[in-house]
Every structure is written in structure tokens, then in C-alpha cells.
Specification:
The chain has helices spanning 13-24, 38-47, 64-74, 90-98, 120-131, 168-179, 198-209, 259-265, 287-295, 313-319, 329-340; strands at 4-9, 29-35, 52-55, 79-83, 103-106, 109-110, 116-117, 159-164, 186-191, 214-215, 227-229, 235-238, 244-247, 275-278, 299-303, 325-327. It is α/β, with parallel strands linked by helices and 348 residues long.
Length: 348
Amino acid sequence: MNPLRVAIVDDLALARAVLRRVVGSVPGYQVAWEAADGAQAVAKAAADKPDAILMDLVMPHVDGAAATRQIMAATPCPILIVTSSIGTNLTRVYEALGAGGLDAVNTPTLGPDGTVRGEAPLLARLATIAKTASPFTVPQVMGSSPPAATASSAGQLPFIAIGASTGGPAAVAQVLSDLGPNVPAAVVVVQHIGSDFTPGLAGWLSARIGRPVGVCPDGARAAVGTVSVAGGERHLILDRAGRFQYTDEPNSSPYRPSVDLFFESLLPVGSPNGVAVLLTGMGADGARGLRKLRDGGWHTIAQDEATCVVYGMPKAAGQLNAAVEVLPLARIGAAIRTRFEGVRHPAR
């Protein structure tokens, strides 16, 4: 286990104490500093950037979403949104994720016997950060060109596939909004996020774009005209019959759900008229899959550096020459629409 310096931001002393215990329960993890509100967190992060920050949402003076935005602009580092009030603060949760929060988890609690409960999701996310060493340094990825896949007997379904991570929710919302309601394709979003938050993300996106967004149902067939998000924690793939399937393999992947795995699963099924997009995010997930789709005849787009919250995944795509176009966020939706102008596909 790699060592990890973790900062804790919460206005409640009890919550900070519980989080200290959770961090201290793992050998090699240590608390870098603590802050009682967002303003303190911004100042402390500027003076001493930790490996990760556990950020509460509802705080006086500067709340968690605003603090996340300021830290990501000045001293970017992985920020986990930790809150006990998800149900009443979904808008703030996704605002914070759009500002650069890496993921969101429920705050662990103390049981009647004094033991900490509900810490497993938080520890799993910290382990991912530790495993990837420096999530804001793009790792080297393979640059070889894989052979294009052939279409299966299931036929070819037109897809718009979107991968995103840090800062993704707001970016995804803009692309989907700019797409409009009548694109003749199945739209699937793979966003790095915990499973507890996936239904909320779908609902939040629905409200933002004014059309239904659902969670990809296991075993269901993809359909033209739908917009779906991958359920968190397990990888999403499309089988050769065009049905969504969830899998735990590969266990070695630090990112769940994996954008690479979903992109690669589209080759035997998705139409070469399809479009794949890689948006803002840490690391390199999605770059290899985007390159494979480009080699398979897909139109591929990566978000440009200037409009990314974290220029990691699109940068890795650039290293592989995986994107046909590199565009600012505000132009991606229109570029996708252009690819589908005049195209008519029967619903499946």
C-alpha cells in the first residue's frame, strides 16, 4: 500500500474525529491537516498540498462545492466529497463533482458501541488514489495500433459513447444539452463514480438536459434514442448481441467503471458511424479504448486542455493520437450532431 497524506475538511468536530480514525486505520495513511470550513481548506491546501482531501459539503463561510472549485483551480489534487446529507443535497454533490471532485461517499458514522461504521466505501476510494500514485500525473500508455474489429452477426447499432472522470458531471451535462433531443443513436455515459451516486447522477442529468436519463440495466438491450449512464463500482460492457452487462473483471483496473473496457466492447457491435468522446478526468482511462475505436472507423473526440478541470484522460488520448478532433467543451455537442446529420437508423 502506497503512503497517503489525507486532509480532512468538516465543520463538525465529531465528523473530523471519525474521519481521523478511518484514515489512521490503514498503515501508511496519515492526516496531513484539518480544516473546519472551506475557506480554511483553500488556504491550507495552498500551503501544503496533500495527496487527497476529504471534503464535506455543507459548511459555513465557504461550502464544499466552492472550496473544491477554488482548490482545483489553484492547487489541484484528488478531492473526495464526504457527506451525510446526500438525499437533500444532490444538487450540491454534483456541483462539487462538476467543479473537480473525484467521487462522493457517505460519511462514516459511530455506532452505539463506539465502533466506526460505513467506512468501507471511503477506504476503497482512498486505496484507488494510493494505487494510482499521483492521479494528476498522466501514466504512460501503450501506443501500438490494434487491428480493427469486425462486426458481429448482431448487427451494428449507432452509439455515442462518452467517458469522463474528475469534473465530468458538468462537462457531460453540457455535451448532452448541446446534442439536443433527436440524435439517432444510443447515448451511453461512463463516469467514474460510486454506485450509491449513479441513480442521483442520472436524475441530476435529466433535470439539466430536459430529457430522461437512466442507469444502464444489466441484461437490457441498448436502444436508439436513449441516454444512459453506467452503474458505478462494476465495469459496464456491451455484449455481441447489444445487451448491457456488468462485470468485476479485470479486478486490476483502478477505475470503476472502466471507460477503456466499455469503449473496447463497442467494436464488435457499434456502428462505424458511431462517435466516442473522452472528457476531463485524471489518469489515462479511456485513451487506449478511444484509439481502438478510431482504428475501427469511429469518429473520436477529446476535450481540449483549456476547458478540462483535469487534463489527464484527454492528454493520454493525445499521446496515442486517439482523437480525430480535439475540441473545447462548448463545441463537442455540435460536432457530434454534425456527424449524425441526415442519418436515419431504425430503433432496436
